[in-house]
């Protein structure tokens, strides 16, 4: 029987039931939808209703091919409903029940897709909190299988402070991270732990810590070692173990995990499903506790059989621990403390399996002309590259949890005073005509999409003094992507805004990055990054419309000026000042510089400390020749022609000298100092460059070797 939900939706048939409510098939203004009606007791909770309204914008802004999108949140009388994409297909649990275990390549591709969806969510500050096979839908509508993660927002909405204290842990026992069990605040790493558990289950047919009473399952998550995965190639076993690390800081980020899985997938092409026996004698069905939690809390009446792989931390004071590197939650507190001091400890066996070496292994296997399956050849190559003894001990059994080689942007060490931005190797420098020399470039990870426009860069410096070089680009998908540190493995997208030009970014003295991008309709939007991550959404700056790339500059008084070229080819500026406890910037309306016209797109700004002003560098529309326009004492000066042409970027070195960089015809990067002297910068780029000042006073210039490959060069 059809039933109305709000004024826009009609539900017609039940699709399924879960712990929080019932999912219905329905119709909306844009076609078929799935509608999740929350339980009556949840719908009657006024606190939850308030959270429902607050979270609407955040949840509906999350759009990704591997996510079941939330289209709307409806509050209507006693009804509380999430309106979602309708996926006509089964979930991963049904596939796993039918197959018991999946081909490793299929398992890796499914989990990689889910990880990419999680990366998009984490970039927007959204944590799923209940990743499991039941919430991974398999969409075949386009012909190819596309995994899509469902139920985003359920835990976020239901898990309010009052409700959590009054009831229980949110999540499914088999997939809960140790820190959740211990009552710590969940972060993105809890999703990675759950996803690692899912990958383990897809490979083995059973979860690593499941079986028996939920209380026993929770204990194992905190105290037990990861069971071995015999027959699984070493690089894949190491990735699984990295996500199941007891300490959240040791786990890969979602984007890193996805990238490494994508690299591994071709090596697993010929590998059949594995028959991995459950080490718990008696063939206990480890999925039973997960199912029990979804069906009225019923638990098996049989006592769980002791696990041979347990490695439990002694609960008796002064009890002996034979292996101080044993993979348990309490022991992993030591490397976490070291990591908090900026000393990332590499645990045995982890060095053989980063992405670049996996590519080398595949090339070595191909060069050897082996007729064995690719996955066997790749594993053999890993044994040779990483050392036979270490690889045999680690590679085929799962081994210790690998500590991450790099720090994720959301896990910057709190107590470190050492810059995380490393100088590139080599001492060779190149002289320039403007007093600059550069060290050999350092390659950055490939951008997932082609770049349009120029890279932009800034250094984020947190309260402890740790500095991280961020690089931003706009992709041909009209999305802003960023790299949180030159040693990061993967680029992350910032969804929620479509733009066709490069952004502007500036570091402020308050330990923030302010990012500015022009939406497709010409309205400039702003987003902030602090040590806690990105602000929830893009915020419009005024109503004025511009075209081309904006420029931004942090002033000594803490304000930020943003400049862009308006639709009338005139220069436009606006100034923002921090306000409130959060330090968020409040911007005024755009002001046009009416005396300057015929301007093209793209603005670079440099400070003028002697006049408490700045200089704007803007190309002319007629010939791209760059004009310098000084602003001092609240007055604009007469435009001055410079020897440069093209799209400018600017940075100021530690001695106070400002430099403007452009890409000239032929690809050479040209530089101009504050005295108007210009010359070859000694660098080459297929795209206009980006530049910023480092904390030690050097300049970092980002250039492009191709439309997806960037590199950074530091001044000597």
TrEMBL record:
Start-end of Low complexity biased regions: 412-433
Limits of the Protein kinase domain: 9-268
Protein keywords: ATP-binding, Kinase, Nucleotide-binding, Serine/threonine-protein kinase, Transferase
EC number of the protein: 2.7.11.1
SMART domains noted in UniProt: S_TKc
Molecular function, one GO term: protein serine/threonine kinase activity
Top-level class of the enzyme under EC nomenclature: transferase
Region of interest (Disordered), ranges: 274-308, 334-354, 400-441
Protein name according to UniProt: non-specific serine/threonine protein kinase
Organism: Catenulispora acidiphila (strain DSM 44928 / JCM 14897 / NBRC 102108 / NRRL B-24433 / ID139908)
């Amino acid at each position: 029987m059809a039933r109305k939900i709000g004024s826009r939706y009609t539900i017609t048939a039940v699709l399924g039931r879960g712990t929080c409510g019932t999912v219905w098939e329905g119709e909306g203004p844009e076609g078929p939808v799935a509608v999740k009606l929350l339980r009556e007791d949840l719908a009657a909770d006024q606190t939850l209703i308030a959270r429902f309204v607050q979270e609407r914008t955040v949840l509906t802004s999350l759009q990704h091919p591997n996510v079941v999108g939330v289209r709307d949140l409806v509050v209507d009388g006693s009804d509380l409903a999430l309106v979602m994409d309708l996926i006509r297909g089964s979930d991963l649990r049904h596939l796993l029940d039918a197959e018991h275990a999946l081909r490793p390549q299929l398992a890796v591709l499914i989990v990689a897709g889910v990880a990419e969806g999680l990366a998009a969510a984490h970039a927007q500050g959204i944590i799923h909190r209940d990743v499991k096979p039941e919430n991974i839908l398999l969409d075949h509508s386009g012909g190819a299988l596309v995994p899509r993660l469902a139920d985003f927002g359920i835990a976020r909405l239901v898990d309010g402070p009052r409700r959590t204290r009054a009831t229980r842990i949110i999540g499914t026992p088999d997939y809960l991270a140790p820190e959740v069990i211990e009552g710590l605040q969940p972060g993105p790493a809890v999703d990675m732990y759950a996803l690692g558990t899912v990958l383990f289950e897809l490979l083995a047919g059973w979860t690593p810590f499941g079986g028996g009473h939920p209380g026993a399952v929770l204990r194992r998550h905190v105290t037990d070692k990861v069971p071995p995965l015999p027959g699984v190639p070493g690089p894949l076993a190491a990735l699984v173990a990295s996500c199941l690390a007891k300490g959240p800081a040791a786990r890969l980020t979602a984007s890193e995990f996805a990238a490494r899985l994508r690299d591994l997938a071709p090596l697993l092409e010929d590998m059949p499903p594995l028959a991995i026996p459950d080490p718990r004698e008696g063939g206990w069905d480890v999925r039973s506790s997960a199912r029990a939690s979804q069906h009225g809390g019923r638990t098996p009446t049989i006592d769980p059989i002791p696990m041979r792989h347990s490695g439990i931390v002694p609960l008796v004071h002064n009890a002996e621990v034979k292996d101080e590197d044993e993979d348990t939650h309490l022991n992993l507190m030591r490397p976490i403390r070291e990591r908090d001091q900026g000393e990332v400890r590499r645990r045995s066996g982890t060095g053989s399996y980063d992405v670049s070496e996996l590519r080398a292994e595949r090339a070595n296997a191909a060069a050897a002309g082996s007729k064995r399956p690719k996955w066997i050849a790749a594993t053999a190559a890993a044994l040779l590259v990483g050392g036979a003894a270490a690889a045999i001990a680690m590679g085929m059994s799962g081994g210790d949890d690998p500590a991450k080689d790099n720090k994720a942007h959301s896990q910057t060490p709190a107590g470190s005073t050492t810059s995380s931005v490393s100088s590139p190797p080599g001492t060779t420098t190149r002289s320039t005509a403007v007093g600059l020399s550069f060290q050999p470039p350092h390659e950055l990870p490939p951008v997932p999409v082609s770049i349009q426009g120029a890279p932009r860069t800034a250094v984020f410096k947190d309260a402890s003094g740790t500095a991280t070089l961020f690089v931003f680009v706009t992709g041909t998908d009209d999305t802003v992507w960023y790299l949180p540190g030159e040693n990061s493995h993967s680029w992350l997208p910032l969804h929620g805004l479509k733009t066709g030009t490069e952004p502007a970014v500036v570091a402020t003295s308050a330990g923030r990055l302010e990012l500015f991008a022009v939406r497709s309709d010409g309205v400039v939007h702003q987003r902030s990054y602090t040590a806690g991550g990105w602000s929830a959404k893009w915020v419009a700056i005024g109503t004025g419309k511009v075209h081309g790339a904006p420029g931004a500059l942090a002033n000594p008084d803490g304000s930020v000026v943003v400049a862009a070229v308006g639709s009338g080819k005139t220069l436009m500026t606006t100034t923002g000042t921090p306000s409130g406890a959060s330090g968020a910037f409040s911007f005024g309306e755009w002001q046009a510089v009416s005396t300057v016209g015929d301007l093209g797109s793209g603005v670079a700004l440099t400070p003028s400390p002697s006049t408490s002003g700045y200089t704007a560098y803007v190309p002319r529309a007629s010939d791209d020749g760059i004009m310098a326009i000084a602003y001092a004492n609240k007055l604009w000066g007469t435009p001055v022609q410079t020897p440069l042409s093209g799209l400018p970027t600017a940075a100021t070195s530690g001695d106070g000298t400002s430099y403007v960089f452009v890409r000239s015809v032929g690809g050479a990067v040209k530089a101009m100092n504050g005295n108007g002297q210009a010359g070859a910068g000694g660098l080459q780029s297929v795209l206009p460059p980006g530049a910023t000042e480092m904390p030690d006073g050097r300049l970092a210039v980002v250039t492009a070797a191709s439309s997806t490959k960037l590199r950074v060069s530091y001044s000597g």
